[in-house]
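Narrative summary of target 7.
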Amino acid sequence: MAATAAALRCCFPGSSGVGSGFVKPNSSRRGWCAAAVAAPSREAEPVSSLGHRTRVDFPILHQATHAYEDARRKVANFVNAADSREIVFTRNATEAINLVAYSWGLSNLKEGDEIVLTVAEHHSAIVPWQFVSQKTGATLKYVGLTKENVPDIEQLKGFLSNKTKIVVVHHVSNVLGSMLPIEEIVTWSNRVGAKVLVDACQSVPHMPVDVQKLGADFLVASSHKKELGTYLYESLLSVPNVQIYGPAPSQTVHRAPLCSFNIENVHPTDIAEILDLQHSVAIRSGHHCAQILHRTLGINASARASLHFYNTKDEVDTFVDALKATVDFLTDRY
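Modeled conformation, tokenized:
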């Protein structure tokens, strides 16, 4: 596993100088954070070589077009799209959601219509629809959390009516790590004639996603974002006074390889800073662009550790050991 992860990491030249990707060498700061952003070399080279080409009828133009369409076909195959023409490339998932909101939303929604979202959505999936709501007069309806702190699917089902025009939901929460039953949500939404937009940024890179099976009208994902998820969760439980948000992994509950957590009487930003400065381990702290969710959870911020496919069990062990040392260091000073 470690050898495979190291080999994969070599494909990301942008991560050179930051060690394993989860644990950094020496004290080179800000090398890796909660989201991997380094471009794989196989993708960076053709982008660089084609970036200066102009729109004229030369062979190089046709090569660029073929390369672009070939990339579209590869993505279509990866998510099992019915046709490569269903794939639309944007700069990032935020732009993709904005594209749906400002093209479809502004053109199709009106006063009296309803947009259903959950409180666990990323800001990028909330703010565009707030704007659309203001412009069109459509109403936003937010699905809350259950006592297990996961989106209340029964409440979502109860919200659906002939007034519902679009349902905006995540596949996997970027804070809770929990998964929503997209196929069921699509079925319920279709019964009332509503569209479904799925934020799959946390699922497509980590698990098989079949867009035909899911059946959503719009699905957005990013190329920069499972086995270690359960190990990370269980290892974190060994840290004194830890609270992990989201459901515990089990035979029936699938959880993404990320954990948002807090330590009693220790601020998450302090945890992230000391992990970075003293242990060269980088995690994220704050509300992770999910402020409504944090407010619903009754907290201002959390710490978050996220894994990618090139991380290893040893790195999780290093992180947890460093976290325990960090908590000891901080509690001695509070």
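The chain has a mean pLDDT of 85.
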